[in-house]
Amino acid sequence: MPRYLLARVGQAVLVLWAAFTITFLILYALPGDAVSLLLGEDGENNLTAEQLDAVRVQYGLDLPLYQQYLNRLGGLLTGDLGMSYASNRPVADLIAEAIPQTAQIAFAGLALGVTLGAAIAIAATYTRFAWLSRLLTAIPPLGVAVPSFWLGLMLLQVVSFRYGLLPAMGNEGLASVVLPAVTLAIPNAATVAQLLNKGLESTLGQPYIETARAKGASRRRVHLRHALRNAALPTLTLAGLMVGGVLGGSVVTETVFSRAGLGRLTATSVSARDVPTVLGIVVIAAALYVVVNLIVDLVYPLVDPRVVTARRRTPIGRATAAIPTPEGAST
Amino acid sequence: MSTDRADAPLLSIRDLHVRYRTRRQVVTAVDGLSLDIHAGETVALVGESGSGKSTTAHAVVRLLPVAAEVTEGTILFEGRDLRGASRRELERVRGARIGLIPQDPSVSLNPVTRIGDQVAEVLRIHGLADARSARYRALDALADAGLDNPDLRARQYPHELSGGLRQRVLIAIATVARPALVIADEPTSALDVTVQKQILDHIEALTADADTGVLLVTHDLGVAADRAARIAVMSEGRIVEIGTPEQILTDPHHPYTRSLIAAAPSLQTATPTLISLHSAVGPASGEAAPPEVGAGAGSDHADVVVRAQGLVKDFSVPRAVEPSGVFRAVDDVSLTIRRGRTLALVGESGSGKSTTARLILRLLEPDDGTISFDGADITHLRGSALRALRHRLQVVQQNPYASLNPRLSVGQLIAEPLHSLRIGTRAERRARAVELLDHVGLPTSFAARRPLELSGGQRQRVAIARALAVNPELVVLDEPVSALDVRVQAQILDLLAGLQVDLGVSYLFISHDLAVVRQVSHTIAVMRHGRVLETGPAAQVLLRPGHAYTRELLAAIPGRDVAPAQ
Amino acid sequence: MTDTTTAVLLPDAATQTSAPARVQERRVANRLGDGARSLVRRPGLLLAFAVLAVALVAALWPTILTSGDPYAAVPAERMQAPSAQHLFGTDQLGRDLYTRVVHGSALSLSSAALAVVFGLSTGSLVGLVAGFFGGWADSALMRFVDVLLAIPGILLSLAMITALGFGTINVAIAVGVGSVASCARIMRSQVLSVRTSDYVEAAIAGGATRWRVLVRHILPNSAAPVLVLAALDLGGAILAVSSLSFLGFGVQPPTPEWGALVAQGRDYLATAWWLTALPGLTVVATVLAANHIARSLDSERKYAR
């Protein structure tokens, strides 16, 4: 078991390293002069050649690409993500300041999304009224089709402006969390509902469900004791993607609600073409995904006895689920 | 086991009608069926797929799919009409008064719940025991169903048990609450023959003790004849004939029953058609005279098509399953296939027979051993030389629903090997496809159809035509009839035998079913755990088996005790 | 495995087909006719096709739907709520919002289509090579895909935009890159399931070359799910493109585009709801229609098996 654990952690580190490398190559190797990105065209025009060189040296941009890569990688290992072009502060500090704001809405959004999605899926298969079931299964596709920036704005319009129930923007207090969390939760809930609904429907068609019914088990017992656990297993393997989706969703959500979190930092960094900050954020997001997946992998054998330690690297069902992820961008 | 009880029957079905609504049509599955079962009586419901036997069994406990609907009739059980019963009432009957043993044990147990809990659940649901005593009674039930070491088994999960053991668990679930009626829906069709016999023995023992009625649904007349007091033969949603096994087998009235008996391979032990033709056999000759290859051209020193020697094939498996990380599927197998003859390779699931077939077909690489075809070593052929071998070596697979590319027409499918091997012009290939359709007994108009429009038997005929398209010398038949109903099975076996006579083609016939094998083979090789235990002329292996396992296989063939009308 | 029970209990639809002659006649009769009939029986699907058709017309021939000029500002008619004259109302400069939404569809849809084509072709190729050739090519490609999956799609797109710069084409490419990984996975699993099918084994045993197996058996049987995926991806791509435009990385004002229109209306959220609500609703309707068609195609395909 410890050997397996070690191998699995090693694998996670490898994925993280590869994600860093790919992102580095995208950001640094694609055409475009880093200095002009750094200073903007006006800045570039106002400086002399010597001054430009000085800036290059300051940010290590005079070095060959592989040298820059090794420096960045070395920095990453010591927790140094480089200096932001835009604010001239360490990227690590910027991210550290932003994380708590995002963590609040992401947690709330995930919890709400999973609860709501699971409730819809269970109710849709459990109800004996065909019309209700049809209605409930019609809701998730709607949730998937709504752009979250628009959803956020509509919530603002109705809840904050028209009825003045909750604050429209800002970071202060519990009330400011509600609308962003709901905005993040809806696409998530829709995904969970679709996946779990599909899982429940196929599970309820399994012969072992018939065995349970033949035992005289009630409808509730069949659903909750036998079907739900089996149907929920594939959803668990999507946890990593869902966390990544919420993080991605925070870019739009925090922009809409003017919340100073990781998503807002991403949006402003991309606008300013602040390469080191974007790289830092992507690495943090990939690390989160890798850690969540690692936890899922280690927990999975506890909930599914069929899975022994020799589990495949690919989570079950991830490839088969042709369902839009929360932001829709990564479908 | 008497049928003439004076008291009211345990179960009385009257004029049952069940319909399925699919997206395009409404199908009547059960069409006015009436049947009685008394306490302590076993009644077998026999029929082919689509006859409505399974639907009838499920209708009794009202466990039908959503698309199905009982439109007419009464289902009287212990004096109550289950058709009109409420959900609550049904839940009280299911499991407690009527136990159901399902068809496929590999998928009928909840994969994430321990065995013991799944058995005890029945008692807990019906309030028949508290948690503690339910656990103990579950252990007893597991022991009664024939599980060794029930303490250990109760703590295991379904995936840790073999198919036969899982079916015993399901028997324990069905009988733990001492129901008055047990419905067994094809309880052994997914299991090997030797296991099938043990399972049926246990069902019989458990129900005989408690005076339980049994509704045994099966496609196998042999099984029905062995186990039931009365047999009801079903066709197209109706019972066409009902009676004791003796009546049904010796004096069948309905033509359908007669055709079923004529086709059933397991019922032909009493009149071994092939063996009588092989009567000249003796250990000294070492070879059965081929009855069909009329003039027997050179049959005494018949030349060898394929000789395999010392074949070995290993597969890597997770170390959690097998500590060495290697599973030896085929272990030192040697075979000889003669021209114009059939070698049958018989074994239960996991015996390595299909892997052996794939090695000979050169779809898998052997880890050791040699294969020669017509004297030439083909063990390591590659590329165009291997493709040239395909001219002479073809395959018919087990499942005709999966072996035909759904996007091609029947004509294209049959001409596919010709196309692949660049034989003939387009027109010639088309003509050859039509000719082959005729050979395999299909109308030539079928060339334009798609596989989806054909039945299982028709599809298998197409697969046979495809295999014969290039005039091969050897065709590997990998369980060619096991996915088909008995009557279709008989037709396909006839067709194969006839083609062998006409074309002089050799067969390697892979099968799990000795009853089928004895109808078609000249030589039989029995495999188990990757090894060949016994090889010999068909008559010798069947009548004077040399290995204990072969005797066990023969003894497990159902229907041996009943002589059919011949 | 999913439908074992129905397969057991249903009087086997596959074997039934041989028996009743009328069923066969109907099948042979005319698949197109069947398609049209089933469309009429499903008003939801009909509506979805209609919505998508209108969106396409708007993108290709906007003048059919409106004669107005999307840039024509009429100061006297600023900030008017929706009315018969201005279906979607007017903006802060007095431009007709309906006209701008119609003209915006060209950019929104073409970017989304470009993203799908890019993501799908790259992803399918990766999945096809991995699934068909297996071995080290498979493990190498799939490790790469695993890594791509570790980066949330929108962040990957944003990194691309940071490197490439703003603009609609860059946004489309960025969105396409974000979907490569999942396309590759689906294509690979599809190819794998076909490659290990009995009929491919039969083809190999029949002497078919690798190339022939690929072209004649694997591609035709893998294509349908990929097309369904394309349809499903279109909805996701429309959302992603409009999100990036909303963030200001796509077109620059005053060019109309759905996401950008919502962003422009954002400043007047409290006073002119229609400036955000209506362009957004257009996105919702289009995505909903695309997804619904994709899902219907998918279930139709599964049913036909």
The CATH homologous superfamily name of one domain in chain A equals MetI-like
Distance between the termini of chain B: 27 Å
Question: Could you give the count of β-strands of chain B?
Answer: 20
CATH superfamily descriptor of the largest domain in chain B: P-loop containing nucleotide triphosphate hydrolases
C-alpha Rg of chain B, in Å?
A: 26 Å
Main sheet of chain B, how many strands, which sense, barrel?
A: 6 strands, mixed
Task: Identify the quaternary structure here.
Answer: heterotrimer
Roughly what percent helix of chain A?
A: over 70%
- The CATH architecture of one domain in chain A would be Orthogonal Bundle
Helix/strand layout:
The complex is a heterotrimer of chains A (331), B (566) and C (305).
Chain A: H1 2-29, H2 34-46, H3 49-59, H4 65-77, H5 91-126, H6 130-145, H7 148-162, H8 175-204, H9 207-214, H10 219-236, H11 239-256, H12 262-271, H13 275-303
Chain B: E1 11-21, E2 26-37, E3 42-46, H1 53-60, E4 68-77, E5 80-81, H2 87-93, E6 98-101, H3 115-125, H4 131-144, H5 150-155, H6 163-175, E7 181-185, H7 193-209, E8 213-218, H8 221-227, E9 230-235, E10 238-243, H9 245-250, H10 255-263, H11 273-277, E11 304-316, E12 326-338, E13 342-346, H12 353-360, E14 368-373, E15 376-377, H13 383-389, E16 393-396, H14 410-420, H15 426-439, H16 456-468, E17 474-478, H17 486-503, E18 506-511, H18 514-520, E19 523-528, E20 531-537, H19 538-543, H20 548-556
Parallel strand pairs in B: 3-8, 3-9, 6-7, 7-8, 13-18, 13-19, 16-17, 17-18
Antiparallel strand pairs in B: 1-2, 1-4, 4-5, 9-10, 11-12, 11-14, 14-15, 19-20
Helix pairs in contact in B: 3-4, 3-6, 4-6, 6-7, 7-20, 10-17, 14-15, 14-16, 15-16, 16-17
Chain C: H1 4-9, H2 13-16, H3 21-29, H4 31-41, H5 43-60, H6 62-65, H7 97-133, H8 135-150, H9 153-164, H10 168-195, H11 198-205, H12 210-246, H13 258-265, H14 274-304
Helix pairs in contact in C: 5-7, 5-14, 7-8, 7-10, 7-12, 8-10, 9-10, 10-12, 11-12, 12-13, 12-14, 13-14
